[in-house]
Amino acid sequence: MTFLDYLIPIDARTALMGRMMRKLGVDKQLKIVPDNVAVTNRAVDRCRACGHQDECSTWLDEQQQADDPPDYCRNRDLIARLQHAAGQR
Questions:
Q1: Contact 1, 45 (CB under 8 A)
Q2: What is the pTM of this model?
Q3: Angle at which helices 3-23 and 53-62 pack, to 10 degrees?
Q4: How many domains are there within the chain?
Q5: Angle value at C-alpha 47, between 12 and 17, nearest 5 degrees
Q6: DSSP type of residue 74
Q7: What is the pLDDT along the chain (89 residues), one digit of tens a residue?
Q8: In which domain, by residue range, is 45 found?
């Protein structure tokens, strides 16, 4: 595996996290939470360590609207907290 082969999946996983946050309407909330850089970095790390990239991509493609992420989402708790803070719950 080359270094580039390593980076491409990381970028794809980071993109999945961004899509998930937008799909669930918490992307703007994530940007304004206290210590948002650290919170975002931890969320990216959780997403990068997930083994459900194909399932996640398919789920995101198939959902027109969603209230909750899939059960396997490693950022599920963070998303729930962001939704609560935004008054979505």
A1: no
A2: 0.81
A3: 40
A4: 1
A5: 60
A6: T
A7: 455 444 445 577 678 899 999 999 999 999 999 998 899 989 988 988 888 989 999 999 999 889 999 999 999 999 999 999 888 66
A8: 3-85
